[in-house]
Specification:
Shape of chain A: globular
Number of helices of chain A: 20
CATH architecture of the largest domain in chain A: 3-Layer(aba) Sandwich
CATH topology of the largest domain in chain A: Rossmann fold
Oligomer: homodimer
Largest interface: A-B, 60 and 60 residues
Number of strands of chain A: 16
CATH class of the largest domain in chain A: Alpha Beta
Number of domains of chain A: 2
Largest sheet of chain A: 10 strands, mixed
Distance between the termini of chain A: 37 Å
Helix content of chain A: 40-55%
Structural class of chain A: alpha/beta
């Protein structure tokens, strides 16, 4: 066994909870509910998914016990880490063994590339044991390859045929589940018996719908970040001399920031979706923060805590336009790219951009701190695109606020510290919520495959209630799709779930945020508790 | 009551453990042990501390119950936050009430300035209740003022006299406890009956001695940082594509890094004291890291975790010399300072420094990344000194390693992420260890004052054992002192406790570190557990 801390060892013996009604898997029979279709772009999506389009939502009810059935299933992690992944595998493994002790589970290695290249391990009871209720994806690794090209699809088909597997479970985010849908359709078109089922994974919380109440990993990530934010709030209140600008991981949507805001009640939390909806400019955001600082200083408070979602930059209209323009003019090989690279100093670069960017974009660029300007120009991905997730938005805002305070001749004290929390929360030991949720998602995936369903995503409902009341169902992946412009093409993809400005959570936040601004209502939530009172160990996300 | 999370509320009712032998405070009588003196500079220290020099260590034994005595005590937090501060106050308060229900506790506000300006609140049972076992110092705040000038000392004497207090408890680090010694001596010299007692507080772990086994806050800070480091190790192992360079708070000494290394077993942990002892240069450190990366790449591992103590920069001989030189030539108002400020660009600054720094210092400066060069020149404290704690050493090393990998034509992948953990761990909910330790330190402080002792520091021994075996004693502050050069003067100050390269912990680390380099022996310690098995909730620091 690998090295383990006391808590890791202790967690090995945690037994995830399963609702009584779905305990006997062989007694569950599928119930087809209403037929489905996506909310928009139905015709185009139907064209791409002729076989899997319009399938019904399915639920389960208890019936007579069916015969034992030997299942062979492959499983893969796709994309970034999220706490609970190993529990999806545990649930899947235990379910396969419930269907028949001879059933087998294969783990594809290092992400979807493992399917394409047919690289896998067999996951046995002994091998799995030490990963139960543990963080990380290290049992089989993960990766970001997508199965998209005809060649990749063909290789995946070969793998499925060679292994003669009944199903593949793809544990991933929105893009990975789009991939699962494509693979399901492709397999059907090639008369392959292998079913494809997705599992909603992402700490970002943006793979949700009216039916998918939550993606796994979100709860653990938010609780981990909130522990740190709470500690920092308490430190700010005690030291009384620092502003903390905290950027939080969560690529586009602001779900993590919103959840952490409820948990810790900092002075200000920016929500990207609100900024976009109200068309708030970067300058206005900076002014808003500056005014908060000035007003708090008048109250004798030279400290505070501000949460900034990682993806906020793309919700600020003029910054989004600027990035889009830079992506075009700086595309590798373009004449602009060469011209800028040849400039002898930053002044010359600025002069060049002034001539080549739209006037609004240039004035947006011009007010950015020099470091950020350079980052936008130099730190680009292999396609020449600005790497938005690498932009240190917390430092950008901090620098701009400092400048505006100077311009307004602010006489008070302003000392600020920038933080970024991300990797700390992806591979943590899963909370009891995520441990239970994932285990049930894994069991449900086996059940869906056993029922011959393909192009579905596992969906456990009623998550706000105690586990006993959780319900299993399956959603056709096509009902979650819409058409989006990606890399120059119109593609059907699963629609990202953004913060809904009409949701109860957001309305509640809008009401409370003004109290949090000046009265320090900080909550110190402390570390995740695995043992002790239900209240401490069994809570679900607030924004669920 | 202020807003509280579920865990905060739950912690309010935790009852800190007290050894049976010291439960009945009024039955404890003082036992004088051996007379003491500091290990060096005895004559000079004696000259400054005529009255409090050479006092004996004291212990306690159970005797006949003494009469009730009404104590009036003032308490103050001095310096940075450390988890458990409110429990020192709780222990102190409960002890005062044990001596007589009419006893009173005053809390001086916002640090030692509260003593100087006689600003305080009375700490009552009701007020204290909601701070029991909580993080932060927010009940009375803290501050960094020192009581040093004759005027400050005189004002403090006035406060003590006006309030007619029996004692002042100063909760602080090495400098604050030096201050406590000065105040004790001053009060005696002016026939003031107020006793002064210190309590060893600092997350850095550098206020220790052969008798003071641990400063409070260290355990909570290290457990909090280790949770995050462990999560990051697991993430590195799962994602397999990032190096994480993690800088850890802890001003000079590398105690925190060493403790976290044992807890999480990352690939490399730099220890400042070892670097100084072996006279390892910055270039050599960079080469060491570079070689680790190259060797791991050969094993197919393009990921890893490296811990860097905040204070490391001052342990690297040539960097220390460079900083000392810069502090002199850049002292505000100096001709150099003006010349550099007038330089028209960085090239001109470099040319100027080349002429004015020693050749070794300039070659050290020259190899630093440009950002760090600028930081050294521009980011200075009010005295014109380089702000060492603000130097982003993790980024410095990351940049230099990246450069060296390029120079060595490294063909593998190197992608790295920089982190700094500090404020996250200072104001967390105190672990059970810190909650118990602090409560006993508080009780002991009252006991020392009640016995008429002054110029002492509270010392609880046997901390490795269960609380039942902990022992109370008092150490004369002067025995911890030596003479150091501070701001141009020779001053008696409490000697910082650095990592002892002959200690069992360090020798053990030296043995294990080679296994950790290439075999990934990461431990994911997870969050602090307040409830559950003793093993999870009652551990003390590993390096104790």
């Amino acid at each position: 066994m690998h090295n383990k801390s006391s808590l890791q060892k202790k967690r090995l013996s945690y037994v995830p909870l399963v609702p009584e009604a779905v305990k006997a898997l062989r007694k569950l029979k599928v119930v087809s509910k209403e037929k489905t279709e996506p909310p928009s772009d139905q015709a185009e999506i139907k064209k791409k998914f002729k076989k899997t389009y319009g399938q019904p939502i399915v639920a389960f009810e208890v019936g007579a016990e069916t015969e034992k059935k030997t299942l062979k299933i492959g499983v893969v992690f796709s994309g970034g880490q999220a706490a609970g992944g190993h529990n999806v595998i545990s649930g899947l493994f235990d379910a396969i063994k419930d269907f028949h002790e001879d059933g087998k589970l294969f783990g594809f290695l290092n992400g979807p590339i493992g399917i394409v290249e047919n690289k896998y391990i067999e996951i046995t009871k002994d091998k799995l044991y030490e990963y139960r209720n543990q963080g990380g994806f290290d049992l089989i690794g993960s990766g970001r390859t997508k199965i998209e090209t005809e060649e990749q699809l063909k290789s995946s088909l070969d793998t499925a045929t060679k292994l003669a597997i009944d199903g593949i479970v793809i544990i991933g985010g929105d893009d990975s589940n789009t991939n699962a849908a494509i693979l399901a359709e492709y397999f059907l078109n090639h008369n392959c018996k292998t079913k494809v089922v997705g599992v909603p994974k992402t700490i970002d919380g943006d793979l949700r719908s009216s039916d998918i109440e939550m993606s796994f990993g979100f709860d653990t990530a938010c609780k981990t970040y909130s522990e740190l934010i709470g500690n920092i709030c308490k430190d700010a209140l005690s030291a009384k001399k620092y502003y903390h600008f905290i950027r939080l991981m969560g690529r586009s949507a602001s779900h993590i920031a919103l959840e952490c805001a409820f948990k810790t009640q900092p002075n200000l939390t920016l929500i990207g979706e609100e900024i976009m909806h109200k068309n708030i400019s970067l300058k206005e955001i900076v002014s808003m923060i500056t005014e908060l600082i000035i007003k708090r200083a008048e109250m004798g408070k030279n400290y505070g805590v501000i949460l900034i979602p990682e993806g906020i930059i793309e919700f600020i209209g003029e910054v989004k336009t600027l990035i889009d323009e830079l992506n075009v003019i700086l595309a590798s090989g373009s004449k602009h790219f060469d011209a800028i690279n040849k400039s002898k100093d930053h002044m010359e670069v600025l002069a060049y951009l002034k001539q080549n960017l739209n006037i609004e974009s240039f004035s947006c660029f011009e007010i950015l701190p020099k470091d950020i300007q350079k980052q936008l120009l130099l730190d680009r991905d292999p396609h020449g695109n600005v790497q938005v997730s690498k932009i240190e938005t917390e430092k950008l805002l901090l620098d701009m606020v400092k400048k505006e305070l100077n311009e307004r001749s602010f006489k008070g004290k302003f000392s600020a510290i920038a933080h970024f929390f991300g990797y700390e929360g992806r591979s943590a030991l899963p909370t009891n919520f995520d441990a239970n949720y994932c285990y049930n998602l894994g069991r449900l995936s086996a059940l869906l495959i056993n029922q011959g369903l393909t192009g579905y995503i596992a969906c456990v409902k009623n998550l706000k209630e105690s586990v006993e009341k959780w319900q299993y169902c399956g959603l056709p992946l096509t009902m979650l799709m819409n058409i989006e412009h990606r890399h120059g093409k119109q593609k059907p993809v699963i629609k990202k779930y953004l913060v809904d400005l009409k949701s109860h959570s957001f309305l509640e936040f809008s009401k409370l945020k003004n109290y949090w601004k000046f009265d320090d209502q900080y909550l110190l939530v402390g570390p995740i508790q695995f043992y002790g009172d239900k209240e401490l160990t069994e809570s679900c996300p607030f924004t669920l």
